[in-house]
Amino acid sequence: MERLLADSGRLLLLGNEAITRGLIEAGVGLAATYPGTPSSEVGKALEKVASHAGMYFEYSVNEKVALEVAGAAAASGVRSFAFMKHVGLNVASDALLTLACTGVRAGMVVMTADDPSCHSSQSEQDNRYYAKLGLIPMLEPSTPAEARDMVVEAYRLSELLATPVLLRTTTRVNHARGPVDLKRAPRPQAKGAFEKDPQRFVTVPANARLLRLEQLERMERALKLSEASPLNYVVGSSRIGIVTSGVTYTYAREWLEDVEILKLGFTNPVPEKKICKFLQGKQRVVVLEELEPYLEDEVRRIAQQHGISVEILGKRTGHLPRAFEFSPDVIFSLKNILPVRAEKAPVDVPQLALPSRPPVLCAGCPHRATYYAAKKAVGNTGAIYSTDIGCYTLGVQPPMQCADFTLCMGSSVGAAGGFAQVTDQKVIAFIGDSTFFHAGIPPLINAAYNDHDFVMVILDNRTTAMTGHQPNPGVGREHGGIETPSIPLEPLVRACGVKQVRTVDPYDFNSTIEAMREAVAYDGLAVVIAKRPCPLLKRKEGKLTRSRYQVNQDRCSQCYICVSRLSCPALTREDKAVKVDSTMCIGCGVCAQVCPKDAIEVLQ
Questions:
Q1: Strand residues in 8-114 grouped as ranges (E)
Q2: Is 44 inside any structural domain?
Q3: Residue 355 lies in a domain
Q4: For the whole model, what pTM was predicted?
Q5: What are the DSSP calls for 270-312, one per residue?
């Protein structure tokens, strides 16, 4: 990662690395995030280089807090950056929309990393509409190099307009690689001073009404900047026009010929005069954009307002899909209305009956043992399993099937209270340690306050696993020259008003079953903390010690409980024999405890 600190040169960078470099070149003094794919690599890079670049960086407890930390820095004269995945902006939106009203004193950029096709998300919402909702200027890069450039430009615009700027990326930009020419980076200003101005920063209604007028005036100035911005430009010459932004611009350049393209990088407010001029004299205009018809509706409005008669095609006409990200097949499907390059015609690929390979919990994952123990505890009566956001959501897969209801971060606990109140079914809520710190504490307090009767299981694997093993308050902080101790879960849970709390090691299977049964039988709110580090994290740190197991075929009765009910991927069935895949097994020993015949043994 030291290469990101170089003064010059050309690097092949991941989009998120290019964004990190942009922060360094922009002289950003503070950055804050809660990790979420596809934005996570920015945090992983900053964790390593921020302190060397003179920048303060933190993993905040959630996205709202991250944005509040960054907002205070920008109000104190320090350039700041808050970043998150698209659904994370929902969490931060309360602070964002008010901060857009008050404005800032130093540059502030907020990155929302959208995820078309839901590669790692529970929805594919289009966060461009937050820019409209909050009257926030917005930039959209199409390549890693452009992402770096737009970060720098976003800070310039933010300070010209005294407002936060939204940087909207998508997965294919965040995770693409491209060449980036480095520019000399200034030493950031990491310390500022807050000058009191209650009329601006205390948003009581009397102040908010005045701020609203100022905000509208800022957007008028932003429109003039958008009209003049070099980020909005035309490529080619033709009576067939393309209006596009983000990664779809690269698809248009690669797949289409003999078209004129209006490439928009400054997309809120859109440059109305530039669009109006582009539409004039066109035979047909196609709006290429992923997800919602955000640009298409703007183009149609501008054409109507200016009396321009031109055929406008896109999502509203059914020519392009609203769901999922674009692909070569989507572009080729436009061959009847656009000149698609002949050499780009898709090659017929034979349809092969490939087996389904859904993601599963890893070999030795402590969550598997916890789920199995929970199912043993409830027995045939069953339960409603209210689950949350994280790798443990994979418990939805057979044979565990320990996920019945998932909304958002922290919802497992709040929803569990609702289920407990309106049904007579037993309810078990599963939530990860990082997710608990993020959004699980308020609903737990709510459950204690309202005397809800359910079991909450905190799956404490000592990390934020699914997004790349980032730290959380439960393990403390050890980056950027700052060391803080961990915040233990059990005292925190008790402080929330919970009386029945027990901490167990999921690898101690019998004790975990006992704790789960005790919690299920308890009359009231009960919490089980299943504490065991993620084995992948331990392996990455070089701290994984393991025993090796084998199946004693003489003892094995071929009941297949280990394969069909525990279903660890390190256990395989060859013909009728069960075997342990030594390349996958991490030696947790849970399968040996599950086996009713003691047929799974430690290798001597």
A1: 10-14, 30-33, 56-59, 80-85, 108-114
A2: yes
A3: no
A4: 0.95
A5: --HHHHHHHHTT-SEEEEE-SSS-HHHHHHHHHHHHTT---EE
- What pLDDT shows up at residue 349? 75
Q: Note whether residue 351 is domain-resident.
A: no
Task: Look at residue 352 and tell me if it is in a domain.
Answer: no
Helix (H) or strand (E) segment spanning residue 471:
none
- 412 & 518 share domain: yes
Q: pLDDT tens, 7-40?
A: 999 999 999 999 999 999 999 999 999 999 999 9
Give me the residues paired with residue 76 across strands: none
**Dist CA 507 CA 554 (whole Å):** 25
Summary count for the chain: helices (H), strands (E): 22, 23
Note whether 422 and 532 are same-domain residues.
Answer: yes
- Of 492, 522, 540, the domain-final residue: 540
Nearest alpha carbon to residue 91 among 45, 36, 40, 38: 36
CATH number at residue 239: 3.40.50.920
State the total domains in the chain.
4
Q: Are 459 and 412 in contact (CB under 8 A)?
A: no
Q: Please give the span between the terminal C-alpha atoms of the chain, in angstroms, as a whole number.
A: 42
pLDDT at 342: 78
Residues 504 and 580 in one domain: no
The ranges of the chain with pLDDT < 70 are 1, 604
Residue 346 is predicted with a pLDDT of: 73
Among 540, 561, 590, identify where a domain stops.
540
Sign for the CA dihedral angle at 11, 13, 16, 18 comes to positive
Query: What is the residue range of 12's domain?
Result: 2-225
- How far is the CA of 340 from the CAs of 172, 254, 264, 347, 367, in angstroms? 22, 9, 21, 14, 49
Residues 512 and 557 reside in one and the same domain: no
Kind and range of the H or E run holding 434: helix 433-435
Write down the pLDDT at residue 356.
82
CA distance 557 to 543: 35
d(CA 544, CA 538): 5
Angle at which helices 366-378 and 509-521 cross, to 10°: 50
